[in-house]
Design brief:
428 residues, binds flavin-adenine dinucleotide, alpha/beta, cytoplasm, 18% strand, seven-stranded mixed sheet, EC 1.3.3.15, FAD, FAD/NAD(P)-binding domain, five-stranded parallel sheet
């Protein structure tokens, strides 16, 4: 039940804040969540439309033991990606290809995987790591589109320790590190379905279920923007605090409290991302099925082949059942990131015409769309830079027991990392 003197205050009712609030409540704490907006969920929203569901941010979650536990506690059924949609493509040499490397490049990658030590070096960029450990071609054609698609960052300014450190812990070649990582994760007792998962009504169903529980067992106050941790402590002197906002807000609140964090002002960047869901009658893949296409970018010019601007396309109705009405294809186009900040300054109409131009370059027979749903996030994702790594290390060092700082800038950008960290902190 809500109390006037909660044990814990959570700032931010995005996915991170709601999850931490829910876990604290399930351990018997009384919790008050304070959210700036008039609704919860933060970046995440699953919008039902005439032609199908539109996700404003995350489309899927990499499954893990903790998500299986959470879903079963919330009474939600996990929706597994359709095995027929497993095929992932990379756009090279004029078309989407499953294996973008030539025979010799593939042989060279295999040789390096068995011989080159893959633990990231101190201060090494992801681009440097990729060229050293995988080779130039694999770094450009595999690593760049894959990580660019997740982090929206420039590989040359991303920290290899921060992004790859947990997968490559041993000073051993790639295959040994991947085996080690897999063995650490399979020793967990709960049966975990593999791959990307979601829920029937979209990722928003998970957020809605968390929000409903937190409202029932604790309290959420909307339209409550926190401007100072000191003032909050004055009002709730006995409460522990979980700060679960985006990077910019967290830094602003923490800088005023901890003088050693002032240096990070202007050093930590966030990246804009634009997501467009397009409904139409034809599919880029013709009669085939697949998960999505990634587009390698040159890390200096940020251009990809044929002047295509999109970073990645997801085939929503192939991945999860029920994502669009019968006979309609739903594709999500992701733009922006380090190389294309400009896209977030454009109007919806301009963005839609960029989507249609890109689609025609990839699929010249492209027919007219039925509808588009555009979401523009101006500072959606943190840049996973070496400065962000040292910010995280400073937080680990200086935060007092009664203050936690969580979010997509704490050692993992995706929902899987946020869930795993939250469960570990609550010792579940
Ligand atoms: C286009 C896109 C696609 C993505 N796709 C995937 C995907 O497929 N899989 C995946 O795992 N991840 C994906 N992500 C990442 C994932 O969606 C985010 O990392 C995650 O939703 C972040 O949640 P959060 O709660 O930490 O932050 P947010 O969602 O930003 O929530 C922070 C909350 O804090 C509130 N707040 C801020 N300041 C204050 C204040 N001062 N006082 C009170 N409240 C405040 C905000 O209003 C907001 O509600 C994607 C992200 C984007 C943008």
């Amino acid at each position: 039940m809500p109390t006037p003197h909660p044990d814990r205050i959570v700032i931010g009712a995005g996915f991170t804040g709601l999850l931490h609030a829910y876990l604290a409540l399930s351990k018997g704490e009384s919790v008050l969540v304070l959210e700036k907006a008039d609704r919860g969920g933060g970046l995440i929203r699953s919008v039902p439309t005439e032609y199908g569901i539109v996700e404003t941010a995350a489309n899927g979650i990499l499954n893990c033991r903790e998500l299986e536990l959470l879903s079963s506690k919330l009474g939600l059924d996990i929706l597994v990606a359709d095995p027929a949609a497993k095929r992932r493509f990379i756009f090279t040499r004029g078309k989407p290809r499953r294996i973008p490397l030539t025979f010799f490049e593939a042989v060279s990658l295999a040789y390096k995987a068995f011989t080159v030590p893959s633990k990231p070096l101190e201060g090494e960029s992801v681009l440097h790591w990729g060229k050293r450990v995988l080779g130039e071609s694999a770094a450009e054609k595999l690593l760049e589109p894959a990580l660019g698609g997740i982090y929206a960052g420039d590989l040359d300014t991303m920290s290899a320790e921060l992004v790859l450190g947990k997968f490559f812990q041993l000073n051993q070649p790639t295959w040994k590190n991947l085996k080690h990582y897999a063995s650490e994760n399979t020793s967990k007792p709960v049966k975990t379905r593999r791959g990307t998962v979601s829920f029937r009504g979209g990722i928003g169903s998970l957020v809605a279920a968390l929000e409903a529980r937190v409202k029932k067992e604790g309290k959420i106050k909307y339209e409550e923007e926190i401007g100072s941790l000191k003032q909050l402590r004055g009002k709730y002197p006995r409460a522990k605090i979980t700060l679960a906002t985006n990077l910019s807000s967290s830094l602003k609140l923490l800088r005023a409290e901890f003088s050693e964090l002032k240096v990070y002002q202007g050093m930590l960047q966030t990246l804009p991302v634009v997501s467009v869901t397009r409904f139409g009658k034809d599919s880029i893949l013709g009669t085939g099925k697949g998960f999505g296409i990634l587009f390698p970018k040159d890390h200096k010019t940020y251009s990809s082949e044929m002047g295509i601007r999109v970073r990645g396309i997801l085939f929503n109705n192939f991945i999860f059942p029920g994502r669009s009405v019968n006979g309609i294809n739903s594709e999500t186009y992701i733009y922006g990131g380090a190389g294309d900040r400009e896209i977030a300054t454009k109007s919806e109409a301009e963005i839609i015409s960029i989507v249609e131009e890109d689609r025609k370059k990839i699929f010249p027979e492209s027919s007219s769309p039925l509808n588009h749903y555009v979401t523009i996030w101006k500072d959606a994702l943190p840049e996973y830079s070496p400065q962000l790594l040292s910010f995280n290390r400073d937080l680990d060092r200086i935060l007092p027991e009664d203050l936690r700082v969580e979010g997509n800038f704490r050692y993992g950008i995706g929902l899987k990392s946020i869930i795993e960290r939250a469960f570990a902190q609550h010792s579940l």
